[in-house]
Amino acid sequence: MTGTPGRTVVTGAAGRVAAAVREGLRDAGHLVLLDRLPPPPGYRARGNETWVRADIADPRALAEAFAGADAVVHLAGIPDEAPLPDLLRANVEGTHNVLEAARRAGVPRVVLASSNRATGNYPVDRTVTAADPPRPDGFYGVSKAAAEALGRLYADAFGLQVAAVRIGSLEERPTEARHLATWLSPRDCAGFFRAAVTAPGVTFVAAYAVSANARRFWDLSAGEAGLGYRPVDDAEAFAAEIPGGDPFWDGGPQGGAYAGPGALLPHLPDPGR
Ligand SMILES: NC(=O)c1ccc[n+]([C@@H]2O[C@H](COP(=O)([O-])OP(=O)(O)OC[C@H]3O[C@@H](n4cnc5c(N)ncnc54)[C@H](O)[C@@H]3O)[C@@H](O)[C@H]2O)c1
Q1: In this predicted model, what pLDDT tens digit does every residue of 10-54 receive, in sequence order?
Q2: Which residue's alpha carbon is at the smallest distance from atom 1 of ligand 1?
Q3: Whole-number CA gyration radius for the chain
Q4: How far is the CA of 147 from the centre of ligand 1 (A)?
Q5: What atom in ligand 1 is closest to the CA of residue 37?
Q6: 55 in contact with ligand 1, CB cutoff 6 A
Q7: Domain count within the chain
Q8: Separation of CA 35 and ligand 1 centre (Å)
Q9: Which structural domain, as residue segments, surrounds residue 15?
Q10: Is residue 196 assigned to a domain?
Q11: 174: Cβ below 6 Å to ligand 1?
Q12: Is residue 272 in some structural domain?
């Protein structure tokens, strides 16, 4: 892989993260934008883009879309807390389908959209590195830890180049206290994913993708060493606009309101049903 992205497939192309990833890959040899949905309103195809409507549960559709690709950026899935069976199907089986289709098609590199929530139960006063064990803050985080493990397996067993990008909070700008630590600007999101597609020498790397926020609690060295990307934005520039006195900084899990029993209970099976 050189510094310029070649033919690249992006799953989950109608979603929020894909909009930033597409900007980072605008000079790709070709971009295959795959989603089960049609393009979002306002989408205008560039000359190097093809939109493919397909479900990642369909191996034949993936085989067709992945043929001749240099990389797959896998974003499709459920992006938040949900019942575990739904997350296992969408995020774990879905990632397996993508990795397996990439292996069969001979695609050398797969970039996985992982999440900070795979480690969201570490406390806010701890700087977490990509080498620390998973500590999910919910079933969603469990599904992302499992998806990363599948990526590692495909790297070790089959030599697939896999980059697991642990996305922070992708927002136009930070709007709440937690974002002062977790914000990922669209520009940095584009930069991390472009690097994950093009960086030389990747075997397996897991890296936090977060802007260079002064108050971040994730270590950026894996992204710098493994992907060669150093983020440029800092949520601190918006700190004055964010209401103070937020209990988030008083301790507790990095997942904030996403962590804890209150976030999980609505998604547990009801034995009375
Ligand atoms: N947005 C964030 O800040 C954030 C943070 C951490 C991780 N992530 C991860 O990044 C990825 C993208 O998140 P997002 O915020 O863009 O979510 P999103 O819901 O906006 O987009 C997901 C897209 O995937 C598509 N999709 C879902 N299941 C599919 C299937 N079976 N086949 C084909 N397409 C399918 C949906 O139609 C949707 O367009 C997810 O894996 C999410 O877990 C996002």
Answers
A1: 999 999 999 999 999 999 999 999 999 999 999 999 999 999 999
A2: 170
A3: 18
A4: 14
A5: 37
A6: yes
A7: 1
A8: 10
A9: 7-267
A10: yes
A11: no
A12: no
